[in-house]
């Protein structure tokens, strides 16, 4: 369609001229990319591929170099297998026909620009095609260094932090700030310089604490700086008191009398806080200890309820915080001990009684078993036989009746004699 349109517009131009303008499809010239990045000091290969559907007697390849604001300069060319270089560049550029690719070795910053390749094929006629490749030459970046200002640290909501990223070598350097391994983007307290090489944090806060690094890159390389963690002073935050014993409900700790309780006071702060403990008694408060820990011996406490206070102070930020709590001492522990003693005493009594009864029964059994047997006098007993039954059946029973003793007979005879007289 384009070819027919141009013929209508320019009827005096023949079909061969359109082929010279790369409109003819008989010759196809391709390059993988129209922009190629090379590394200074290294060789660079510019790949080119072409094909055509005609009989060729001659194939001509021409390479030209063009800088901005200048005319194209001839580098080298070939006809069939013969290469004709520009003598000025004969050791820098290499062409191996019929391959149209170009080798540049070594590559310098001055070699940056547009490279034009043209292929002419002569057969029944001459057809031509051309392509342009833009070559960018870069110097690899070196490892960047991050500087912090100020280096001594700042107080949150008071000071500012400036991070500067510098790199020794590299062209077309792109700067990217990282925090904890993730890219850092614009926010209300982050300000970046025009080239992103400087990061300003205004004002600093506790949330800005982290590991910062600077990632620099260009089309041929990338390097990341060492991790740097700015010093930010903050706190105290989240002051709280904990104990190793007792029951804690809100700000009230309930402990048993006789126990030794260790209280711990802590708060998030940089640098670490200084702590002081105060006790309130008789409407007055006095400091009883310094440090994060307080030991209370409940059996030495005169009152059942004691009010305490822990205070945290950051000597860099100048901020402080305090928390109040109450210790209630109960005698639950002693009552439990007494109940336990009573239960143990009752158990001991029951055990003693049971043991006594068992021993007594055992003694009685042994005594009965081994007691000697006494004989019964034959004169005190007599045997009587009683027979009962009928003719067909006889049952015999033997019964023993006690006979009166001789003493009884004498007493009876005496009574009779007296009666007779």
Number of helices: 4
Strand order of the largest sheet: 2-11-10-5-6-7
Mean pLDDT, all residues = 81
The figure for the number of domains is 3
Q: Give the percentage of residues in beta strands.
A: over 45%
Write down the overall geometry.
elongated
What helical percentage do the residues reach? 10-25%
According to DSSP, the number of beta strands is 31
Which structural category fits the helices and strands?
alpha+beta
**Radius of gyration from the CA trace?**
59 Å
The end-to-end span amounts to: 189 Å
* Uncertain runs: 1-25, 378-403, 415-421
Largest sheet: 6 strands, mixed
Under CATH at level 1, the class of the largest domain stands as Mainly Beta
CATH architecture of the largest domain: Sandwich
Q: Remind me, CATH topology of the largest domain?
A: Immunoglobulin-like
Please name the fourth-level CATH homologous superfamily of the largest domain: Immunoglobulins
Biased composition (Basic and acidic residues): 407-421
Keywords: ADP-ribosylation, Cell cycle, Cell division, Cytoplasm, Cytoskeleton, Disulfide bond, Glycoprotein, Golgi apparatus, Immunoglobulin domain, Membrane, Mitosis, Repeat, Signal, Transmembrane, Transmembrane helix
Protein name: HEPACAM family member 2
Region (Disordered): 398-421
């Amino acid at each position: 369609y384009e070819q027919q349109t141009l013929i209508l517009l320019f009827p005096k131009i023949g079909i061969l001229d359109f082929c010279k303008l790369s409109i003819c499809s008989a010759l196809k010239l391709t390059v993988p990319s129209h922009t190629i990045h090379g590394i200074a000091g290294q060789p660079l290969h510019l790949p080119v591929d072409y094909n055509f559907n005609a009989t060729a007697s001659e194939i001509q390849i021409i390479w030209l170099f063009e800088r901005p604001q200048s005319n194209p300069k001839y580098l080298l060319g070939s006809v069939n297998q013969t290469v004709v270089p520009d003598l000025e560049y004969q050791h820098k550029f290499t062409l191996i026909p019929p391959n149209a690719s170009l080798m540049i070795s070594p590559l310098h910053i001055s070699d940056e620009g547009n490279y034009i390749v043209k292929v002419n094929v002569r057969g029944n006629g001459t057809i031509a095609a051309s392509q342009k490749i833009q070559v960018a030459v870069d110097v690899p970046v070196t490892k960047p260094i991050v500087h912090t200002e100020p280096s001594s640290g700042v107080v949150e909501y008071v000071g500012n932090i400036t991070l500067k990223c510098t790199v020794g070598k590299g062209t077309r350097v792109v700067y990217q700030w990282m925090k904890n391994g993730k890219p850092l983007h614009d926010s209300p307290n982050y300000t970046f310089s025009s080239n992103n090489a400087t990061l300003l944090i205004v004002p600093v806060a506790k949330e800005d604490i982290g590991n910062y690094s600077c990632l620099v890159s260009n089309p041929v390389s990338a390097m990341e700086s060492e991790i740097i963690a700015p010093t930010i002073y903050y706190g105290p935050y989240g002051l709280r008191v904990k104990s190793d014993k007792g029951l804690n409900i809100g700000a009230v700790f309930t402990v048993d009398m006789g126990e030794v309780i260790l209280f711990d006071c802590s708060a998030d702060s940089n640098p670490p806080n200084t702590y002081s403990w105060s006790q309130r008694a008789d409407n007055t408060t006095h400091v009883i200890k310094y440090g994060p820990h307080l030991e209370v011996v409940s059996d030495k406490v005169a009152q059942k309820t004691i009010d305490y206070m822990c205070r945290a102070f950051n000597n860099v930020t100048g901020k402080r915080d305090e928390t109040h709590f109450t210790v209630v001492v109960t005698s639950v522990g002693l009552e439990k001990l007494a109940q336990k003693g009573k239960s143990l005493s009752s158990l001991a009594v029951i055990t003693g009684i049971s043991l006594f009864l068992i021993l007594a029964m055992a003694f009685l059994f042994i005594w009965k078993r081994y007691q000697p047997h006494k004989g019964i006098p034959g004169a005190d007993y007599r045997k009587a036989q009683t027979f009962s039954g009928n003719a067909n059946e006889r049952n015999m029973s033997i019964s023993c009746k006690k006979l009166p003793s001789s003493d009884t007979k004498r007493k009876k005879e005496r009574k009779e004699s007296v009666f007779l007289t």
